[in-house]
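Many introductory courses stop at the sequence. We go one step further.
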Amino acid sequence: VSGDTVRWQYLANDLWDTAKITDQTVAAIGETLFWFKEYDSSLVTVCTSDINSPKVWSEEIDIVSTDLPSLASIYNWNDTFFAVGNGGSIMTSTDGISWTATAPTAQFASILGVQFATKNYKEHLHAIVKEKDVYRFAKTYDGINWEIGDVCPDGFPIRNFSQPVSDKAKPQSGNVTSRLYIVGGETADGEMTSSTWSCDGFSWAEFQQGFLPAMTRPAIIQYTLDTNAPKSLWILWPGKYANGSVKNEVYFSENKGVTWKLFKSEFSKYADTQKIMPVGHVSAILNQNNYWMYFFGGVDSEGKQQANIFGGQLMTLVFDKIK
């Protein structure tokens, strides 16, 4: 895999004025995209688009809620958005506009993602809560009732990690365990990490990195290269590095984040390939219909929020699909 096997393009530029935007994220329910924007930490709006035509967006609508969701925590589980509110509650929404904040049984810090069911446990959602200045794992099977569990281990990212990657168990191939993965983020001490953490439904394991730099909010897209013999390829667009910089580097992993390699920085092999500016904290979504990976928003090297969409298409996958 090399950078020249990806066709990079800007799909849209300067969609709206970003001067007052302080944070943003894009999430999906089905094929509907939701672009959430936070203005001066006091207002959150949402607009929508279709994943097959992501250049066209609806008008912004102010969300309706007694609290504001932390945009970095927004996560789709079973066609419902979950997020951590600024007050530490769990917030939910089915349309991205109307949000309900639950009475917090604990002070929630982050949502970690879904653990798919196996023969040993039902599907459930993981989160992190803070009790008496101690961070602990929590989980829910119904989105309402939460069980507080073990203390988070040293070095575990509490916030600003990647969007989660969840793998289902595949008993027919000998894999009876589902896995949940996160990469990067900030620890309770405010230190950035580059580690990949994996949960098997019972405990978390760390894969420390010697090559991938420490960063916050990297964007990860997971490909399945061959539907007959599934092999996962992760593509990672970095977030912000520890020195505050952002770059246009692209990393990939062929072993689910255990080790990483760097794409070659060849952006010009194809006539329609464009140089992508350095940007971090983008949102990443894969269109399964055409193998396009879309990257939305983010911040530039000066910390200014961006209103651009760029995308890439891994050409070997297109050829596989044609076959």
